[in-house]
């Protein structure tokens, strides 16, 4: 048989292929020749054939038939054969293949070989693809090589030990004696791998972390880091004028782990961190990498306040860097530290605001989040001016988040009610189509409560919608205000700005234009029709025109609009004596919660009291199916299904509930119960109770619990008891996310034994923001008539990092005060 072609010739031949089909034909032809050679047990060219096979594997073609040939090369006495054999094993084998166990004995023999390069090959292979069984069998040999005086072998043995610890954590103590002298080594390769090994041990075992703190590992690391900073030029380790930056970064990371929550260790490293922060050259990216690790270490340990200010100033300098990646990591780091060092971050406010004008969308988003976190009572006017300018010019994907952030900040820090109203109206004018659903009722409530601003507000809103109905939320608020305060608009009583002269007919013209506009949504037309009806008690000269408009819409194809018009017609004909009382001006609204007590919600790093919203569950998960899915959660047949609350199509806040006055003539003040799904259960326990007061204020006496904490998702339960029915416990769940990516499509489900009755209300959102920058809240009501110990099984589903996640958990640690 002729000699096979060399690897170099094969590469050259494959590169001449003009099409994919031609390349496949060449590969198949060569694979057939290699298979024939393997069948004939050709030892002469086995090494060459496996090398070619590895190249084909790198191109993406199947090469599994060469696995046993790799084992034969490993067993060879030639170094060249062993080298290709071990490389093939690392590429073609892994612990899922049983074949890899056959090479355990060969690796053990080679670890004890007289040649250091053969030992190095065996260590590399074991550290790359060794299974837990192989690691248990060969850990003794690795530990022995870790104590050798040969620096070439020690650095490879240290990295191999890292792999062994990851596979078999209980073998960690075996390597502890060998770590004592590792940091005394002069060789930088050994030092680097030793720090990696020590970092792995500290991260995986709290006992190891305590041990290394006790044996004064920090002073050793400080000494090494100081020598690196103070040492002169060394051509072997110099990168852009900095001595071994890779080792410096590794040491800084290990110091961060050792100093976290430890006063003594943090004190020992304060000086060296200050030296690194002030002496590192920042003209090259290498220096910036070291400074960034230094900043992370300073912020993570119990460092001095002056050192933390220095770290934040370094991040401030990063914001001026031309490199977008450096600006991005600076903004991300500042966002994490803004809560603990708010004043220090405030000094860089102007630089952060400038980042809103960056062309990079990732930098823009981080700058926007950080800007909202910096808003306070002192700078709210200036910051809102910048953020409103950003809202004008930003891309559509930013407008919703930016509008929500402005609403929250304005509500918390507004210097005056007029400024608050002007700010929200500016947002609605600029990005009205992107605001959240609760923006309209919230603004209506704000306007209602600002009695002295009614004339000013209705005049501003009237001018804002003249001829432009594109921003539907703005048109809805304007329609509502014109309906309520149309008499103030016509009378020209505005004192805050120059009043305008408007007639009753001109006002009705605007509202009729909204009714017939193609841009008006069904909800907006409902607002306009109700506003026209209200004006029948505010206006005196146009009542007949109003009757005519209302009667026309009694035959509208829009069922909602038709129902309103029919009811209003009935009001004109049969109940005209009641009309002035029914349509009188709204009283001042109190901001009440819809699903229970007010919760504290984290928004962009600020603690913000927010009203829980009733929102529909995510698509694809209907309330009925949620109840049925949970029937088997606790096991057995004594399960009571969840009685979900079906959200209505009306706005959920107090202002929204009052918009449709005649939707139901239940004027007692108590909300109409939502229709329940067809489940054969008695009416729910709370359905007949008066709405005020529902809960008492003894929540402080019932301790909260953490019901779930895994994979960055944390679920906390807080408790309240009903005033009217002591058997009712109200549980408010609060879900937070400490990972770096948002969790989307979040669904919380729960089931209890049959002796209890449970109602699960709708969540405030389906997205849990990353970095604990926000929470989802949801309310559970539990009836426990027999005062038995509460037990609950919960089911969590969500999407994270592109994967669908699902988990079950049992909660049995409810405090006695919650059920006794």
TrEMBL record:
<dbReference type="GO" id="GO:0030121">
    <property type="term" value="C:AP-1 adaptor complex"/>
</dbReference>
<dbReference type="InterPro" id="IPR016024">
    <property type="entry name" value="ARM-type_fold"/>
</dbReference>
<keyword id="KW-0963">Cytoplasm</keyword>
<dbReference type="GO" id="GO:0005905">
    <property type="term" value="C:clathrin-coated pit"/>
</dbReference>
<dbReference type="InterPro" id="IPR008153">
    <property type="entry name" value="GAE_dom"/>
</dbReference>
<dbReference type="InterPro" id="IPR002553">
    <property type="entry name" value="Clathrin/coatomer_adapt-like_N"/>
</dbReference>
<dbReference type="InterPro" id="IPR008152">
    <property type="entry name" value="Clathrin_a/b/g-adaptin_app_Ig"/>
</dbReference>
<dbReference type="Pfam" id="PF02883">
    <property type="entry name" value="Alpha_adaptinC2"/>
</dbReference>
<keyword id="KW-0472">Membrane</keyword>
<dbReference type="InterPro" id="IPR050840">
    <property type="entry name" value="Adaptor_Complx_Large_Subunit"/>
</dbReference>
<keyword id="KW-0653">Protein transport</keyword>
<dbReference type="GO" id="GO:0006886">
    <property type="term" value="P:intracellular protein transport"/>
</dbReference>
<feature type="domain" description="GAE">
    <location>
        <begin position="700"/>
        <end position="815"/>
    </location>
</feature>
<dbReference type="InterPro" id="IPR017107">
    <property type="entry name" value="AP1_complex_gsu"/>
</dbReference>
<keyword id="KW-0333">Golgi apparatus</keyword>
<dbReference type="GO" id="GO:0048471">
    <property type="term" value="C:perinuclear region of cytoplasm"/>
</dbReference>
<dbReference type="InterPro" id="IPR011989">
    <property type="entry name" value="ARM-like"/>
</dbReference>
<dbReference type="Pfam" id="PF01602">
    <property type="entry name" value="Adaptin_N"/>
</dbReference>
<comment type="similarity">
    <text>Belongs to the adaptor complexes large subunit family.</text>
</comment>
<dbReference type="InterPro" id="IPR013041">
    <property type="entry name" value="Clathrin_app_Ig-like_sf"/>
</dbReference>
<keyword id="KW-0813">Transport</keyword>
<keyword id="KW-0968">Cytoplasmic vesicle</keyword>
<keyword id="KW-0168">Coated pit</keyword>
<comment type="function">
    <text>Subunit of clathrin-associated adaptor protein complex 1 that plays a role in protein sorting in the late-Golgi/trans-Golgi network (TGN) and/or endosomes. The AP complexes mediate both the recruitment of clathrin to membranes and the recognition of sorting signals within the cytosolic tails of transmembrane cargo molecules.</text>
</comment>
<protein>
    <recommendedName>
        <fullName>AP-1 complex subunit gamma</fullName>
    </recommendedName>
</protein>
<dbReference type="GO" id="GO:0016192">
    <property type="term" value="P:vesicle-mediated transport"/>
</dbReference>
<feature type="region of interest" description="Disordered">
    <location>
        <begin position="599"/>
        <end position="623"/>
    </location>
</feature>
